[in-house]
User: Which sequence fits this backbone?
């Protein structure tokens, strides 16, 4: 019978007026300013503390009005969130106070009038249960600073919010110079936005109503079924109803092949079918969500789904490094998928690295390895692809993550490095043939274990060679350290005898430091001496020198001898310039009195300045030398048990004598001492020129 009595419609709840929104790909908040202004957005949120009102010290930048705009923040094409963009308009508020007639007009007070303005603008956002505050730094150039004038705007992207939420936005500056601006807005829901395919919450919870406009008291049958391409239809739900009726379908029950069939409950009635979801994107998403690829047995795969799928299937090669599975097309061909039926690839030999891929619209939807359960984990094999290029010609390439590398090749890939070996294995049938087609080509799996073993052997050999080289280097370094001359420390102690004598001591110290010796003398450490005190400095230097197996050199002069005699008799010296001598005497004298001076101390006096008998007997336990006449012996004692110093002894003595002779002459002229500073006769050593 005719169906004029029946009207079927879908009520999806869309509003007749929809709004299209701008999409933002950037996942983080951003800020930008209008022309002439510069903006900087602080990282992260700040505390929402407006603070109390303050008086403006001059022209300041303040927000004057707020605007909002809805956008979408979309990390993925179908995974978007509703976001509120905020535009804050800014103006210059206040001005500089004018000076009275009697006030001084200072140029420094006028300078800020020509400066730019910097403001910290806070945007506070509330949308239950979220509260956020963002801080923007906005700078206005001096040319735009005109009191009372608008300078432009700043745009903040963006505050995320829920559909249908009520949001509140405030804006103020830090410090706050005026009452904060505020704005309240009710956000639309899915019905007022063109976002049904972008925001998942707009389609995940959106049910479908079937409005069956059937005359009252009319009995009819309703059948929901899946339209199968292969075989008969597959019933899902059946009901006998009385019109009119409205039936609600859950959104997860929508599939492209879901159809509706209705008919009056009368004999020989005509049935009417309608399939309204074939082009619905939600239905296609649901179909891929519910579809499943599984391997019922080794080498057998099956794709289960309630509807037919527009998809392709192909073999791929999965390397052990868990990189992308490389499709084996060509030489193999893709095949159309038939759902709910077991399939296998003909003439394919099992291998744990062979997997099946199901793709749709160039996107891999499913992947399963066909022999994972029976043949174990992935193998580190190299897959060689043999392709026919002519009647009797073939080419061979190695499948890698970067593509198929022709063999042989000059590239820097792993297969290229082993190209000749792989070709040799291929020609001598050491590779396993996985598939062959007389017209297309073949696939070969070549084991890489032997190459890995060879590589590890080489690595171990290299490591052993490096270890041997390192050991040899350490031995050489140890021998060098033993052979290298040890630099000894010499501490020079003297009395304050005047500028000429200090110059003589300095000349001796400089000459000795060139031998080489590490020389310490108070003349070179005035700052440390004044900072720590004479007694502490001399005591520390003596202890360090003796700990390093060095030698302490006591320089005796007439004044030093007199002070030593006084110290030995009265345990003190007179006040004046001899405080330093008293300090070092108190440090070294106990070693002489207790018999510990041998090998640690050396006495020295200068030719013509002092007779050796004048040196106190207490200090004669140490070797005593007159300089420069006895320089060779003095230098031998300074050398001690260390390795021989470079150069001939005569050359070393001559260098020191030359430095001392000039200082002795200068000192003699200043002091007027008879015979003081007479030229040194080095005996068997040549005289200085």
Assistant:
């Amino acid at each position: 019978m005719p169906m004029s009595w029946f009207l079927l419609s879908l009520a999806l709840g869309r509003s007749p007026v929809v709004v299209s929104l701008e999409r933002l790909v950037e996942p983080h908040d951003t800020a930008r300013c209008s022309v002439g202004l510069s903006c900087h957005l602080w990282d992260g949120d700040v505390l929402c503390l407006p603070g109390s009102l303050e008086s403006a010290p001059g022209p300041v930048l303040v927000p004057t009005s707020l605007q909002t705009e809805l956008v979408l923040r979309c990390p993925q094409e179908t995974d978007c969130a509703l976001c509120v963009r905020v535009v804050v308009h800014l103006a210059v508020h206040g001005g500089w106070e004018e000076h009275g007639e009697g006030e001084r007009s200072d140029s420094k007070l006028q300078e800020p009038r020509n400066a730019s303005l910097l403001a910290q603008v806070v945007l506070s956002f509330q949308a239950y249960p979220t509260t956020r505050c963002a801080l923007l730094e906005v700078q206005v150039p001096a040319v735009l600073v005109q009191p009372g004038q608008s300078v432009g705007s700043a745009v903040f992207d963006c505050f995320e919010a829920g559909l249908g939420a009520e949001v509140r936005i405030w804006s103020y500056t830090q410090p706050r110079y005026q009452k904060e601006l505020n704005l309240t807005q009710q956000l639309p829901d899915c019905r007022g936005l063109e976002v049904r395919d972008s925001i998942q919450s707009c389609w995940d919870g959106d049910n479908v109503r079937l409005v069956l406009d059937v005359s009252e008291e009319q009995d009819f049958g309703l059948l929901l079924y899946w339209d199968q391409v292969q075989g008969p239809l597959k019933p899902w739900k059946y009901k006998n109803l009385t019109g009119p009726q409205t039936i609600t379908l859950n959104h997860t029950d929508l599939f492209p092949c879901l159809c509706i069939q209705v008919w009056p409950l009368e004999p020989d009635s005509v049935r009417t079918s309608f399939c309204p979801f074939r082009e619905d994107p939600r239905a296609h998403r649901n179909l891929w969500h519910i579809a499943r690829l599984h391997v019922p047995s080794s080498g057998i795969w099956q794709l289960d789904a309630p509807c037919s799928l527009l998809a392709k299937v192909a073999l791929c090669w999965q390397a052990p490094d868990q990189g992308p599975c490389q499709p084996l097309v060509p030489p193999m061909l893709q095949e159309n998928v038939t759902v709910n039926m077991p399939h296998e690839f003909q003439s394919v030999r099992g291998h744990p690295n062979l997997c099946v891929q199901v793709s749709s619209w160039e996107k891999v939807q499913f992947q399963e390895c066909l022999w994972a359960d029976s043949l174990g984990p992935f193998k580190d094999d190299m897959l060689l692809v043999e392709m026919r290029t002519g009647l009797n010609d073939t080419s061979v390439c190695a499948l890698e993550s970067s593509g198929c590398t022709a063999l042989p090749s000059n590239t820097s890939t792993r297969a290229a490095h082993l190209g000749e070996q792989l070709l040799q294995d291929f020609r001598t049938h050491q590779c396993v043939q996985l598939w062959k087609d007389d017209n297309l080509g073949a696939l070969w799996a070549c084991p890489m274990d032997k190459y890995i073993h060879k590589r590890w052997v080489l690595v171990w050999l290299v490591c052993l060679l490096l270890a041997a080289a390192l050991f040899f280097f350490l031995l050489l370094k140890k021998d060098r350290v033993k052979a290298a001359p040890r630099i000894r420390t010499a501490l020079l102690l003297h009395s304050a005898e005047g500028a000429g004598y200090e110059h003589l001591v300095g000349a001796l110290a400089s000459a000795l430091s060139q031998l080489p010796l590490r020389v310490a003398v108070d003349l070179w450490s005035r700052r440390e001496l004044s900072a720590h005190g004479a007694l502490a400095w001399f005591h520390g230097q003596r202890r360090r020198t003796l700990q390093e197996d060095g030698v302490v050199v006591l320089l005796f002069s007439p004044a030093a001898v007199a002070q030593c005699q006084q110290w030995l008799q009265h345990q003190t010296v007179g006040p004046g310039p001899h405080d330093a001598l008293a300090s070092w005497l108190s440090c070294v004298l106990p070693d002489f009195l207790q018999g510990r001076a041998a090998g640690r101390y050396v006495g020295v006096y200068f030719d013509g300045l002092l007779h050796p008998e004048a040196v106190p007997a207490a200090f004669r336990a140490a070797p005593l030398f007159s300089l420069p006449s006895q320089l060779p012996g003095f230098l031998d004692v300074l050398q001690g048990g260390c390795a021989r110093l470079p150069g001939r002894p005569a050359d070393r003595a001559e260098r020191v004598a030359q430095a001392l002779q000039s200082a002795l002459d200068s000192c003699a002229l200043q002091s007027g001492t008879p015979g003081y500073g007479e030229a040194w006769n080095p005996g068997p050593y040549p005289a200085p020129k």
In short: The CA atoms of residues 194 and 577 lie 98 Å apart. Residues 449-483 form the longest helix (35 residues). The radius of gyration is 50 Å.
